[in-house]
């Protein structure tokens, strides 16, 4: 908005320049007319005195119009172009010259057509006709005045014929001129609209529609230009590549409209934290870049990164939801760390991912010796695609213990990858990649199939029937045929439907609660049990739970960790357990590692627990041995856990 007055001022200057050019065009006609007037005097068509008067009047009129336009006084008129005023003045001067001619008066009247031509700039057909009538009236007045003052110079029939000719020609000329003027105006409007459309298309092609920042296309062009300038002038260029931490949780939990507003706010905050000369762009998703030129040393880049991080971490609230943003920043410089634009972007991206791994919410400079991530990531994705068929995926099972009896009430299936080079990989080392590439869907169904097959084999071996819990991914939960495919898998395994429990996180159901409730009802109609995992870490409330057909609620380990010493965690755990029981749900506590946590949970009425206080995740053979040991073990006294 601050630029609007300057834009208006520039536009006014352009219009005034156009008016001045039109004045000079009209003045050129006067300049040509003065020698013609002198020649008419020489051949005796007009006397010397009226010719001098007419020539002087032409000069004075043009000087006056020039003064008005030059000093801007024309802007005080209703018509700043002064088209009507100039036309009436020219018509008056022409009629004076025509009256002063002693013979061949019609020759001078040819200038009427020239005067009308200037109406093309402004006049419509109606105005042209009016101007023609004014000229005809002026000529009629000239004839009558000449018949009165100097009748010897008037040939009535010739004058009448000339007037009649003008009466036929001028309106027709005016009509044609009006149509030309109208066409010209329409062409101008079309040209303006086309220019505006092209400008819009250009902006859409080069700017992000959500944030208004330059997009990847414009940024790449800007980066190439900046690097060519840097090469020519021997100065460095730096790129800051940034990605919002855990932004996917906001999208999944609060929805994309809130996520879009977060991206807009983030864009404004990043732009406000850097210099005006720095280029800020959005490459897509929650990824932004800042192109920095003319910096003194690398420490300056660290200060820029800290300013961006600080700006984004400021408190934020959208639709009543308090949010906390953080960003990880990767920094790469040219020519020290990259030789061309693609390498600069790729290396800055690599540094950003390293910041996420080592210092989330901080920044990291690119280091060539540590840049193995990109290659490793591509190799890991290719290997993950074939991990199941190569029998590299493994399921470990962590027992869930009934707190009253101390017996195994169920197990949770946890995925591992036995990588041929890197050994046993934990989920956090490959599940994010599986989610990003979509491989998680196929892997998820493999987990369900394997878990159901294992659970059926335990029953066939004579072990008590226990449930097996499987974590669903967000992408898998959104599959339209989820219920049908799961039903087919469970039926094929021979396992009872109620022995399969699906663990669903808050973020998965809160993204679209209505669709989630519908999917969960279909699963429950088949007999499959449902549990909400990591409860309390998202944005839902306990009151929302009654919308979903959930049988079990898992208290997140973050609330269990500091029990029984943290009063807030004790209060939260007590409230969760009480509310869950009022909704007829079982409560399972995760991450129980010592006796104090167990005692606090038992006191509050928790139903089951899992964690290292009982057993860590076990391989399938180890779990079978544990179940066999438990079967041979005598009844455990009430309120005692089956601990190692």
Automatic annotation (TrEMBL):
Residues 377-631 form the EAL domain. This is Diguanylate cyclase (GGDEF)-like protein. GO terms for molecular function: cyclic-guanylate-specific phosphodiesterase activity. Gene3D superfamilies: 3.30.70.270, EAL domain. Keywords: Membrane, Transmembrane, Transmembrane helix. It comes from Usitatibacter rugosus. CDD domains: EAL, GGDEF. It comes from the Bacteria. The chain crosses the membrane at residues 23-45, 51-69, 81-99, 105-121, 128-148, 160-178. One of its GO terms (biological process) is cellular response to nitric oxide. It catalyses: 3',3'-c-di-GMP + H2O = 5'-phosphoguanylyl(3'->5')guanosine + H(+).
């Amino acid at each position: 908005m601050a630029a609007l007055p300057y834009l208006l001022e520039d536009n006014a200057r352009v219009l005034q320049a156009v008016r001045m050019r039109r004045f000079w065009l009209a003045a050129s006609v006067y300049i040509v007319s003065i020698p013609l007037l002198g020649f008419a005097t020489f051949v005796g068509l007009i006397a010397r005195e009226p010719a001098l008067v007419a020539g002087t009047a032409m000069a004075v009129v043009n000087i006056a119009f020039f003064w008005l336009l030059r000093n801007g006084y024309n802007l005080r008129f209703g018509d700043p172009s002064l088209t009507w005023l100039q036309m009436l003045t020219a018509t008056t001067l022409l009629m004076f010259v025509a009256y002063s001619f002693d013979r061949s008066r019609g020759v001078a009247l040819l200038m009427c057509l020239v005067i009308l031509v200037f109406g093309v700039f402004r006049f419509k057909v109606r105005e042209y006709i009016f101007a023609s009538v004014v000229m005809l009236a002026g000529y009629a007045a000239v004839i009558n005045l000449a018949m009165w003052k100097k009748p010897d110079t008037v040939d009535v029939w010739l004058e009448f014929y000339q007037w009649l000719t003008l009466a036929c020609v001028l309106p027709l000329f005016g009509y044609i001129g009006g149509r030309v003027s109208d066409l010209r105006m329409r062409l101008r409007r079309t040209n303006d609209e086309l220019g505006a459309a092209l400008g819009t298309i250009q902006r859409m092609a080069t700017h992000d529609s959500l944030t208004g920042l330059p997009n990847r296309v414009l940024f790449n062009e800007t980066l190439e230009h900046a690097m060519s300038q840097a090469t020519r002038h021997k100065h460095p260029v730096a790129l800051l590549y940034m990605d919002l931490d855990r932004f996917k949780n906001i999208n999944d939990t609060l929805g994309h409209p809130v996520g879009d507003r977060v991206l807009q706010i983030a864009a404004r905050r990043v732009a406000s934290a850097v210099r005006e000369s720095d280029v800020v762009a959005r490459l897509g998703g929650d990824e932004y870049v800042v192109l920095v030129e003319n910096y003194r040393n690398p420490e300056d880049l660290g200060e820029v990164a800290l300013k961006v991080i600080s700006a984004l971490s400021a408190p934020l609230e959208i639709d009543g939801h308090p949010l906390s943003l953080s960003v990880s920043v990767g920094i790469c410089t040219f020519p020290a760390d990259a030789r061309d634009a693609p390498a600069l972007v790729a290396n800055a991206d690599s540094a950003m991912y390293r910041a996420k791994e080592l210092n989330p919410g901080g920044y990291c400079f690119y280091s060539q010796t540590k840049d193995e991530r990109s290659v490793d990531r591509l190799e890991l994705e290719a290997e993950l695609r074939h991990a199941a068929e190569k029998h590299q995926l493994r399921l470990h099972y962590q027992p869930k213990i009934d707190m009253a009896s101390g017996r195994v009430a169920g197990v949770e299936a946890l995925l591992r990858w036995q990588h041929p080079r890197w050994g046993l990989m934990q989920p956090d080392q490959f599940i994010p990649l599986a989610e990003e590439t979509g491989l998680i869907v196929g892997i998820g169904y493999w987990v369900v199939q394997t878990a159901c097959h294992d659970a059926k084999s335990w029953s066939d071996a004579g072990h008590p029937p226990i449930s097996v819990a499987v974590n669903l991914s967000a992408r898998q939960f959104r599959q339209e045929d989820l219920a049908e495919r799961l039903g087919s898998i469970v039926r094929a395994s021979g396992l009872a439907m109620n022995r399969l429990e699906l663990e669903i996180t808050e973020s998965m159901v809160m993204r679209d609660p209505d669709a989630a409730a519908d999917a969960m009802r279909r699963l429950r109609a088949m007999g499959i049990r449902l549990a909400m995992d990591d409860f309390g870490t998202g944005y839902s409330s306990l009151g929302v739970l009654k919308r979903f057909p959930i049988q079990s609620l898992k208290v997140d380990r973050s609330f269990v960790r500091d029990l029984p010493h943290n009063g807030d965690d004790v209060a939260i755990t007590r409230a969760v357990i009480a509310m869950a029981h009022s909704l007829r749900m079982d409560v399972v506590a995760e991450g129980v590692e010592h006796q104090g946590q167990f005692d606090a949970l038992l006191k509050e009425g928790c139903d089951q627990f899992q964690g290292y206080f009982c057993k860590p995740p076990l391989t399938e053979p180890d779990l079978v041995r544990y179940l066999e040991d438990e079967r041979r073990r005598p009844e455990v006294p009430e309120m005692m856990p089956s601990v190692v």
